Amino acid sequence: MKAGIVGLGKMGKNLALNMMDNGHDVVAYNRTPKKVKNIEEKGAEGAYSLEGLVEKLSPPRVIWVMVPAGDPVHDIITRLSSLLKTGDVIVDGGNSHFKKTLERDQMLGDKGIELVDAGTSGGVTGARHGACMMVGASEDIYEYLEPLIDDITVEDGCIHTGTTGSGHFVKMVHNGIEYGMLEAIGEGFEVLEASDFDLNFEDIARVWNNGSVIESWLIELTKNVFEDRGNLEDIKPVIDSSGEGKWTVEEAIDLGLSVPVLAEALMVRYSTQQDENFGAKLIAALRNQFGGHDVENK
Ligand SMILES: O=C(O)[C@H](O)[C@@H](O)[C@H](O)[C@H](O)COP(=O)(O)O
Fold first, then answer.
1. What phi and psi, each to the nearest 5 degrees, are found at residue 131?
2. Coil, helix or strand for 102?
3. In ligand 1, which atom is closest to the CA atom of 239?
4. Is the pLDDT of residue 247 over 90?
5. Which of 21, 96, 222, 286 could serve as a FRET partner for 191 with CA atoms 20 to 30 Å apart?
6. pLDDT class of 188 with cuts at 50, 70, 90
7. At 48, is the secondary structure helix, strand, or coil?
């Protein structure tokens, strides 16, 4: 298959290489020409404008968009909507909010353009050597894309989740779970670190990843982190988040569900963003008021 790729960041570039490794032809566009040049050297056909990318593909065109969720993806899809024709397919491989995907699907559907949401997991390594994908699409469009999707995902690492929007919905919940699992690992190692035993975290993570109940890719990565970064002295304890954990919790609230672990994991991330935790200061002062407990002064 010949596919267009928009966005040659870490994920897009590696997905393009993955497609080419598997015998697919790639036309690649990025707003930074240098990135286009780089991928041309690796065998892709370069496009230096969105218009140019569309021209180099023949109908029904498949354009895989790998740009950050939010305004960038919205901008690209809006621009593509006026360049593409009935029957063409846009795949949004980023972490878009599923409700935005449903809105965009409606907008594109009015023009006969198909939108596919391919929630993609496995990070950069996955994009390069075989990702895990959760794909929302109509039956016939999924069938059309299946040979390509099968090639760029790991074995049994792809699911057609249902109609457009469901891929991003399932990926959102996946990331909500990811927040909870990360938080559990972080807290566990915090307890280990605080103990009086002289523990080797790298060895513990390595052994936990060999037959234990919590054996997993995240534990393998935990081992790698300690291997690469020792006791994390060079890292600031600040955790960013790009939205999926928040959306999962919001969705759960809208559905009337209690998801305390996912919510707490999100709140912990937010709390790390606060240099000056006013609430904590107030609680310390209140403990002093009612119990006479010491307040630590700056
Ligand atoms: O499944 C994955 O490969 C990851 O989830 C990936 O999609 C990305 O690393 C997250 O978007 C990070 O999400 P936060 O920025 O919200 O932690």
1. -95, 175
2. helix
3. 17
4. yes
5. 286
6. very high
7. coil
From 67, 95, 133, 269, the mutation candidate for ligand 1 (largest count of ligand atoms within 8 A of CB) is: 95
In whole angstroms, give the CA distance from residue 1 to residue 58.
Answer: 11
Distance 201 CA to ligand 1 centre (A): 24
Predicted pLDDT of residue 125: 94
**CATH of region 2-163:** 3.40.50.720
C-alpha of residue 83 to centroid of ligand 1, in Å: 30
The reply to whether 2-163 and 171-291 are identical in fold is no
CATH match of 171-291 with 1.10.1040.10: yes
**Domain ranges within the chain, ordered by starting residue:** 2-163, 171-291
Does ligand 1 have an atom closer than 6 angstroms to the CB of 96?
A: no
Q: What pLDDT shows up at residue 296? A: 87
Closest atom, ligand 1, to C-alpha of 244: 16
CB 59 within 8 A of CB 33: no
178 lines ligand 1 (CB under 6 A): yes
pLDDT digits (tens, 9 = 90+) for 15-43: 999 999 999 999 999 999 999 999 999 99
List the residue whose alpha carbon is closest to atom 2 of ligand 1: 121
Write down the pLDDT at residue 275.
75
Cβ distance 118 to 134 under 8 Å? yes
Distances (CA, A) of 229 to 135, 165, 189, 222: 35, 39, 15, 10
Instruction: Tell me how many degrees the CA angle 262-264-268 measures, rounded to the nearest 5.
Output: 120
Amino acid at 76: I
Count of other CB atoms within 10 angstroms of residue 292: 7
Ligand 1 pocket check: which of 178, 185, 262, 269 to mutate, most ligand atoms within 8 Å of Cβ?
Answer: 178
**Ligand 1 neighbourhood includes 122 CB (under 6 angstroms):** yes
Q: What's the ipTM? A: 0.97
